[in-house]
Amino acid sequence: MPAPSSMRAAMRLSRNTRARVCFPSASLSSTSSSHNLFPQTVRAASTTTSRILQLSAQIAAKTAVVDEYINKYNLPHASFAPDAPTEFPSPGLEGDGKSAQVLDDVSAAKAAHAELVKAVDEMKDLVEGPKEKIRSVILKDLFSPLVVQAIYHYRIAHAFPPGESITYEDLTSKSGLPVKNLRRLIYHATTLRIFAPCPVSPITSIVHTPASALLAKNPFLEALTGFMLEDVWKAAAHVVDAMDKWPGSEEPNQSGFQHAWQTEETLFKALSSSKSRIERFGKGMKGIHQGSEYAGKAFVEAYPWEKIPEGGTVVDIGGGVGHTTFDLADTHSHLNYIVQDLPPTIATAKATPLPPQIADKVQFEVHDFFKPQPVHGADVYFSRFCFHNWSDKYALQMLRSLIPALKKGARVVINDGVLPIPDAVNGWKAEEKHLISMDLIMLSIVNARERDVEGWRELFREADPGFRFLGATKPKGNMVWIMEAVWDPEGDVHVEWSAAESTPKDRVDEVLR
Ligand SMILES: C[S@@+](CC[C@H](N)C(=O)[O-])C[C@H]1O[C@@H](n2cnc3c(N)ncnc32)[C@H](O)[C@@H]1O
């Protein structure tokens, strides 16, 4: 569904206009809710149902939907017991009898769950009030990363199994942390429901909660926790210092990370000098992309590869060891594929034999994506999860390095995250908050950025007017969008197909042009 033109116009306008007063007028704010521009804002003298009553009704209604779904499929209810589900439960979707009805139920329950989380979040902020909000950020929340870092660092979650308790003394001998420090850290952790006081001896012992047990059970989440709290968190604390020292820098070695670690090396180079640190990074990245909402399969399914003529060429730029291309070659055998990356990655990729059915379809090539593209005349050049690692200065260079190789009508496709645009009426959803955090992670460690659709469009426009942006498509149930441009330097290319136009509607959540 295309974005309403009013929304696109508003996005452009808000980028181009200078600051102006943006509050509901006094007359509006004191009238009925239908005129209230800010339903999330608590109106001082409400004439209708108060916001907290509206929210509590929403919470009750959405909870009922979720509860009914859990009961219908006999799934475990949420609880703080050690064996409770660690994420939103779904019935197994494989096998016979898993009809479209099941998929519809899962998707409706997930939507209700997302609205429930959002309403609960707003309710908490409303009932606690703004002073408590600021106090939480600067006092309570400030120490949550410290506590989780200590749990990670001293392997406290591994010290005893779920279902058992452990005394602080025993935990001290297992972790090496003096009992006084251990106790104060764990007390804070229990405020986050990471560990809980033991019900029979709450002063001397603790038990696992689902969250603490998960840190020992899920190695990818554990690695991500380590990377985030031992590498990124320290960098984040230095972002303002870095911005003061290198104002407006777009260099990957002038971020909070370099300031914090007193190095001139990029994040990747610095991590690479320690085997354990770089392995943790790799595993942590798998942790981020573990969920189906990041799966490359959605890109393979949602882009209209079948429209590329027989014998066409597809180039996977910064393709790693080639996983996405392997899936592609498996399903679209009428095309030829070239995976490009830096020498060590290509050496690793070549060391593993390809499955026989794709062996003659896929080639590997060493190529630095800042240098001129060596494959001329391909039909599609795509890049997945590479552009968001770079600031505009470098992302522009990546696009411009393609130009000498592009034939008229060639497609340049970017499979990457898309930042949400602010919605003053409905506020942010939980998944949107994650994306916004991701943008700050990129700022903290490499001075790069996430982009909204308008940012992607601008990137192509600024790289060269010969790129014509064809739209951004969000594959069904997936967080990784497809941005597509066609090389059309004379403005005379007739575009017969594109992801935005040709992908069947049931494979797409949203299209923005
Ligand atoms: C986040 S990974 C994405 C890999 C792959 N596209 C995927 O989706 O799994 C970024 C990739 O960019 C590669 N890379 C980084 N700098 C590069 C450069 N200058 N030229 C080519 N590849 C580069 C890395 O080696 C890595 O494989």
UniProtKB/TrEMBL annotation:
It comes from Aulographum hederae CBS 113979. InterPro entries: COMT-like (IPR016461), COMT_C (IPR001077), SAM-dependent_MTases_sf (IPR029063). It comes from the Eukaryota. SUPFAM superfamilies: S-adenosyl-L-methionine-dependent methyltransferases. This is S-adenosyl-L-methionine-dependent methyltransferase. GO terms for molecular function: O-methyltransferase activity. Residues 251-463 form the O-methyltransferase C-terminal domain. Keywords: Methyltransferase, S-adenosyl-L-methionine, Transferase. CDD domains: AdoMet_MTases. GO terms for biological process: methylation. Pfam families: Methyltransf_2. The keyword Secreted does not apply.
